[in-house]
Specification:
With 315 residues, the chain is α/β, with parallel strands linked by helices. It folds into two domains: 265 residues, Rossmann fold (3-Layer(aba) Sandwich), CATH 3.40.50; 27 residues. The radius of gyration is 26 Å and the shape is globular. Bound molecules: thiamine diphosphate, iron/sulfur cluster and magnesium ion (MG).
Length: 315
């Protein structure tokens, strides 16, 4: 039966949304993004995923940098930290280290993450900080009115590239895979149900999970990463893709004329928190050993043959 024969009534839909409980995860602030911005899908995806996983909003912190994407913490009903441009990851790492029980989610745009904040990503990934990093990639600086970003495509005309962009874009998925991120996936704002599932998987993963979300900036990009263009270029990962095979993940990430959606790679390995607990335990043990050692009466390490005569010692 086609959709036309099955109308969706607004009241029924609203009731379904209220009953689902996911509105509990929305804050009272309405998003200030431009109508049609892909970021709305990410809020919906996040609230759906948190609701499905029964994540306690009082035990959750969403951390962002600066940019349109970084307005995100205002729109979810959790603790939030709108930090400085590019600095979401070190702040999020500090929060997680201070309180391992918290669910920590960092968010940001392509400029925030890969330009000013680029040097923080490898370290959060290699240390396997148990957090989720959601990257909103519109291939442009949206907040500052449409300059090129590190993921802008070649040939893109913007306010900073009136004669077209000549800088090759970064490949964020390749970067994250080689940095050692323990979970790497990609989603598209134009496929909101799949996006919600991917956020759920990323949140459920223990370790550093990185979700790259392709998201059109409808105001400043009318030609490259539009719904029409992205809609035509996204694809599924090949059937039987092995998420434990880093080389298979990289092979998929290298194909950039079409963009595969799904989980590219995942592995379980000790997190930063595990490492710190181990260090703390061992340091405490060593401290006790030392105390015991110091409590013992000291034995003289000299013998009669090596004993320094009193008189010489006094010189
Ligand atoms: C230290 C510093 N440098 C530059 C800026 C200006 N600035 C604010 S947002 C932004 C880029 C945002 O782009 P992106 O992270 O892609 O987010 P979007 O707006 O596209 O969501 C820049 C350069 C700033 N706020 N602080
Ligand atoms: S400027 Fe672009 S990224 Fe920012 S809210 Fe508007 S559409 Fe979204
Ligand atoms: Mg951007």
């Amino acid at each position: 039966m086609s959709n036309i024969e099955q109308p969706v009534y607004l009241e029924e839909k609203l009731e379904e949304i209220y009953d689902s409980g996911r509105l509990d995860y929305r804050s009272k602030s309405f998003p200030t993004w431009c109508p049609g911005c892909g970021y709305f899908s990410i809020v919906e995806g996040m609230t759906t995923a948190m609701n499905n996983l029964s994540i306690d909003p009082d035990e959750t912190v969403v951390v962002s940098g600066i940019g349109c994407a970084s307005r995100f913490p205002f729109f979810v009903n959790t603790y939030g930290f709108h930090t400085l441009h590019g600095r979401a990851l070190p702040v999020a790492t500090g929060i997680k280290v201070a309180n391992e029980k918290l669910t920590v989610i960092a968010v940001g745009g392509d400029g925030d993450a890969f330009a000013i904040g680029g040097a923080h990503i490898p370290h959060a990934a290699r240390r396997n900080v148990d957090m989720t990093y959601i990257l909103f990639d519109n291939g442009i600086y949206g907040l500052t009115k449409g300059q090129t970003s590190p993921t802008s495509v070649l040939g893109f005309k913007t306010s900073t590239s009136p004669f077209e962009n000549h800088d090759a874009p970064l490949n964020p998925l390749m970067m994250l895979l080689s940095y050692g991120a323990a979970w790497v996936g990609q989603a598209y704002a134009g496929h909101p149900h799949h996006l919600a599932k991917m956020i759920e998987q990323a949140l459920a993963h223990r370790g550093f999970s990185y979700l790259h979300v392709l998201s059109p900036c409808v105001t400043f990009d009318k030609t490259t990463k539009t719904y029409k263009n992205l809609g035509m270029s996204v694809r599924e990962l090949p059937e039987g893709h092995d998420t434990g095979d880093i080389m298979a993940a990289m092979a998929q990430a290298r194909i950039t004329d079409t963009l595969a959606l799904g989980c590219y790679f995942k592995e379980l390995r000790p997190t930063l928190g595990d490492g710190l607990s181990d260090i703390t335990r061992r340091a405490q043990g060593k401290e006790k050993d030392n105390l015991r050692k110091h409590d013992k009466p000291k034995k003289s390490r000299t013998n009669s043959a090596t004993k320094v005569p009193r008189r010489r010692a006094a010189v």
